[in-house]
Specification:
alpha+beta; 18 strands; homotetramer
Chain lengths: 362, 362, 362, 362
């Protein structure tokens, strides 16, 4: 089973960017989880393009829950959510069929599917597919919150503009959940917006770094070989096509430290064993320590840009120029953050259900 | 199944650092792979501590193949390899039972296993367990080589000392395979060794960054949601207890680029579609592109050091000092590289067997 | 992942009997399989109730393919098929909510889902769900046929009326594929129909035995521990709620034989090793032998009958009478046969894809 | 992963009949299960050949626990048990290499493994492999017992000699657990023994039917599509090479019943909802009902007999005679029963751990 993720709670995604609908199956949800359609809508709105910093493609993300929910609660059976594709302009892509866009999956899709892929708009590789992840996770997130587990992601960096660090996790996560452009420092937020618009005006694109905190995760979750907390989360994150790097806690900065700096000393706090620092990002030996799980991921610049690029005709093997038609985002970092939140929620919930059983989440 | 990895070719690890033996089951190997015991020994020797840059614990890594190999070839049935633990000094650890070593898994193991863990020497979380990964992969690596697939890892960085980049992959990988301390630039190699010894003399430890190249991987391998090449490899890598960060291609540097710099333009080379640059590290949309797969991982400083550290007694919840007894490595970066090579080989082989069938590897 | 089946080609079912739609995701299909919507319709028609031997509930089984198929061919990405529920009369079931129907899953669903199940019409346990299996398999069956693999199921027995044995597999399977009531002997067919109608008139129900042949299966498919051909097929078959017994080859009759009668002697036929008899039903040691795979399964009488039965109120724990409202089948054996064919096709295809790779089926 | 079984608690078997050792990995056991080595020995003794009704091959089944158990309790990490092969007479099989024994896996192993299989003594397909299942389950069975779950299997039938039905499950299961030849009716037991000896004297073999009861299973365990109680148990049972049929409750007899006879009417018993009859064998809609789980499986006659049989040389394709050398069992039904008990225990424990979490079994 290669296009599903999760053992106890699993998600399977389906759909192509320009097909009739996209969607997800979530299996393994406890019966009795309250499903809040308004919250699903709100979460989808955080992923939807808004303003000049995003693509003009405007999907209403009208979703239907076909199964597994009854009278406002999960039944315990597989939940199928579908989301209509309405604002599709396939002819934008007609000219592209043999010209793979640089850094996009057009070429590798052809290698894998031998030309049978439904490639318009990126097909099954489109960022559009992530809307299903957001909708699916929007059932799980309130249930995790009821258990005291909160997830928040902010834009740590766009170009050379940095957001401040998390300080009060609870307040920061609450703040982020109500802001489309998830930056904690308002001045940084404004400068990042200006930077994106300036890049958009050049017809170019830009990436950035997202940072996520998971608070309230119980200690003792995860498996040493091979289903570590880090392994499971990174496995999920790298499915987001633009994510190219993942680090936990101090991450690559560990290379600058010696052991006596890097080690997180144990202390007692409120009668519980905690660590004074959290360089390990809430995970020791692959197992959650009860400290906040902290990770960052790099989001590469949107591959589709409005500049002429070199490519190769996949049929004739002749070099060619490509000027990508279609509508695209100058930056997807701000839209990706809710996808990161969502995919993290699914992964965490799966690990908890494995540990505590199938009724635990309700 | 949480303590196994792989769908078509899978590995399950067992054993504790101070138990009678550690080992691995590898299932799904094609029948007819030639098994070279000398190569297994050589690979194990690359992981074994040597000289003043490593722990004085000296395991001979005497292994036995209990099943799945007959007359020098794999049978197609599960292969069980066991490796004896001989140089065990459990009493070193007797005093530690309730004092978790900072940044080690002692505390999280207790949270997970409720005190039933066999914790001496790190138990099932010990780096010792990785010897089984090396032995298992040593069956697969020559088979991958016969298919034209080569894997090599070098120490990219120790403290502020950097190795040169890969230049000629084929020659570089060949060079690395015959050197215990896997650094391409001899002068950097010497300075790194000196740095490690100096850190060891202080009773401290140090981490670093490893960089891996996989050459010859066919295009079209991987699945978009969720078994991407990056997702599978990172999932496996994060099982190595000291690995805290993984990046592919340009990785976190993507945050410094705009789209027109980041995009890998397609070109024709030897009648095949290639990319001019390889910022995406050989993976587009989660699928291999046929370019070398390039990734780096951060290895944190060895948690066990010879300095007094603060910790908490897990029974009494009182703060305590800990001066870790036992033997430890001032640096494990150089020993970890063959583990990274090995776990990558297992992951790659699994993805290939899924795509091309169970007989493919022979 | 508990509500999916298959490793290389997997199916996940969703939907409730009285929800808006039911459906299936099929993942792992090779790209380039021709999808024949007329064949899907035909297969669904073989499952649909017809005449006095079936329920009057009349579903048109209008299906939509939401993903994974483009220009009439599979893309290689997950295929989502949905089937509308149109002829739903939920109020028939309103009175039943606390009164579990004997031998149905009402009671066990309550135990499992704690009352959150959407139980009307049997909910997720309804035979209605099997329509999705039939639709999904209708994509795979023509692809298997192109590889020379044919599957056919006939009604071996209803009450004391027996069909003749398979004789010419090829002709028999072809005959069955074009007949709604899948019996090889026309006289037996007529007597079975009369028997069912007579049982229906009494307000009772009846079961029977189905026998299946899979021809053209290559030798060497299956795994000894634990994914045997028998284990995988039986695992799938027992999901059909009415199936309570599965036997391969001589099955329970082996208890009447001694070794020299039971053993299938090897012979050479057309230059290939075959067996003279086929008591082992095409499977030796769990691995396909190249002989036809033969199995039978028992289908219990439809639990819902028009007679007054004893039951217990699940809330009050008081005994109560139940006279099942709603529409039901006096016999589902004839409708189940295409489900058996279909679920067998999915299982076989999965095992073949695992062995020969993900491109094999196209 | 094809040679493992189980999601939350899984078993992987390894070893060949004439290799140095066989064994099992059991992963997912809760930490803190008491491991009773004497009970493991006792269970292995119930599988070991005894007297004239069994093969003269006499293995001591000396086992070692290499990992996952410390101070007499499970650690929560993977348990590896190995069992030495000591009484190996490989030269008995030297003459057989190209002559497949009828009804044995020699031929299908060759088709699957292309001649690389280690076929002596049946290799990885040998009944010998089941000793590892028995040893592994012997860790789990006492833990299930502590939870009030008891499993017992008796020989329902050998030739035309039938054992009595289960009457008092508790007493019967207790009786069976202490008897090597698991028959409830002493007179039937004696006649069965005489029958086996008489068949042995003819150089022939005989099969039979085993019947199993699982008492104390909580209601609400299992999944509708596709991990039903019946599907999981049958999947596991069919791995036992001689098992060719599995039926639950009334099984194939359902074909003789109409609905009003077959349906199990609900009643209240001791304040709990039960059924008056148990034709469904404790499973409704694939989910456990709280009634005893009852199933029967057919064990075919041992394929290896002392009579001359026809076969085909796999190299030359010429017909040949075979007089199987080596030592063999005239009947394995009595030895298989503890394997059925054991594999059932593993399956049940896996389903319970999935439902109630990873700590549940301790």
């Amino acid at each position: 089973m290669k296009n599903s993720f999760g053992d106890s709670i699993s998600i399977t995604l389906f759909g192509e960017s320009h097909g009739p609908a996209i969607g997800a199956i979530i299996d393994g949800l406890s019966p009795g989880i309250k499903v809040d359609e308004d919250f699903i809508k709100k979460q989808l709105s955080l992923r939807r393009p808004q303003g000049r910093i995003s693509t003009p493609r405007s999907e209403q993300d009208k979703f239907s829950i076909l199964s597994g929910v009854h009278n406002g609660y999960t039944c315990g059976t597989p939940v199928c959510i579908t989301i209509e594709n309405s604002d599709v302009k396939t002819k934008d892509y007609a000219s592209l069929q043999c010209l793979p866009r640089p850094s996009h999956a057009d070429f590798t899709a052809r290698e894998k599917y031998h030309g049978f892929e439904f490639s318009a708009g990126g097909g099954h590789f489109s960022g559009r597919i992530t809307a299903s992840i957001v909708a699916a996770a929007a059932i799980i997130i309130p249930a995790l919150n009821k258990k005291g587990i909160y997830i928040g992601t902010h834009i740590k960096r766009i170009a050379d503009i940095f957001d401040r660090d998390f300080s009060d996790y609870s307040a920061d996560i609450d703040y982020l959940s109500n802001n489309y452009f998830a930056v904690l420092d308002k001045s940084a937020s404004q400068r990042m917006n200006e930077k994106i618009i300036s890049i958009a005006n050049e017809g170019d694109s830009i990436g950035g770094i997202l940072e996520t905190a998971v608070c309230g995760m119980p200690a003792g979750v995860g498996e040493p070989w091979f289903d570590t907390v880090e392994g499971k989360i990174s496995h999920a994150l790298f499915s987001i096509p633009a994510v190219k790097a993942v680090e936990f806690g101090a991450g690559f900065l560990f290379a600058d430290m010696c052991g006596c700096e890097a080690n997180d000393v144990f202390i007692v706090n409120d009668g519980k064993i905690k660590t004074k620092t959290n360089n390990n990002g809430g995970v020791l030996g692959g197992i959650s320590s009860g400290m906040p799980i902290i990770f960052r991921c790099a989001v590469k610049p949107t591959p589709t840009i409005s500049k002429l690029q070199k490519t190769v005709d996949m049929k004739t093997l002749e070099e060619a120029d490509i000027l990508a038609p279609g509508r695209h985002d100058p930056c997807i970092v701000h839209r990706a953050r809710i996808v990161v939140d969502s995919i993290t929620a699914l992964t965490i919930a799966d690990m908890l259900a494995f540990r505590y059983g199938t009724d635990w989440l309700a």
